[in-house]
Design a protein that fits this description.
Alpha-Beta Plaits, 2 domains, 6 helices, about 60% helix, rod-shaped
């Protein structure tokens, strides 16, 4: 979340600087800028390839930083070439604005993802009704209610639920715990599961009732 807000701040600062540079374009030494930007692009591209594909928000944030730097290098290279060919320094702030727009888009997505975790929203890929039906389909389960699903971080999800069963011994619930936990892990990516067993005959409730941890 802090990283996302920081990126938004950087993008806004780029907008501010670009505005004044458009009004009063500074002299840009195209050849020197071209060499430095090319080196930066090579380094940032290598780092981006190493970070690409991770689902953790912290790594995504680092990846976004690197992509922003790489895009900046591309823009600077393009700007340096245009300046060398035309002598028009105004292209530099125009490209800066383009970079800032791209950074803002990625940063807002990062902040929204972080807020979903902080507010304990259910993961987007998990449908509570489908999960409830899958649990009820397991042999020995008579019903399920009070399902709560939330994210601990971007790639670690948790669930708690009340499971209705017949009158069985405590030892028999262990097998159900293992089966339910395996199913929700394999089908829905939920790795932390807390289950409370209740007697279906002793405490009748509305079977299949469930909810996400937070409603959108």
């Amino acid at each position: 979340l802090i990283n996302g807000i920081t990126i938004i701040g950087i993008a806004l600062f780029i907008f501010y600087e670009a505005y004044w540079r458009i009004l009063d374009p500074p002299e840009v030494k195209g050849a020197e800028v071209l060499v430095i930007a090319t080196i930066g692009l090579v380094v940032n591209t290598w780092v981006a390839l190493k970070l690409h594909g991770h689902s953790d928000l912290n790594i995504k944030s680092a990846y976004l930083h690197v992509i922003g730097d790489a895009l900046a290098s591309v823009a600077v290279i393009a700007g340096a070439v245009i300046i060398l060919l035309t002598g028009d320094n105004r292209i530099d702030p125009v490209l800066s604005i383009l970079i800032a727009v791209i950074l803002l888009y990625g940063a807002f997505r990062l902040v929204i993802g972080s807020m979903r975790i902080l507010l304990e929203f259910a993961p987007k890929h998990v449908d509570a009704d489908t999960l409830s039906r899958e649990i009820i389909a397991i042999d020995g389960v008579k019903g399920v209610h009070d399902i709560h699903i939330w994210s601990i971080c971007s790639n670690i999800h948790a669930m708690s639920a009340h499971i209705l069963v017949d009158r069985i011994h405590v030892q028999q619930t262990e097998a159900l715990i293992r089966e339910i936990s395996k199913m929700v892990r394999d089908r829905f990516g939920i790795v932390h599961t807390t289950l409370q067993f209740e007697c279906a005959e002793c405490a009748p409730v509305e079977l299949g009732h469930n909810s996400d941890h937070q409603e959108e």
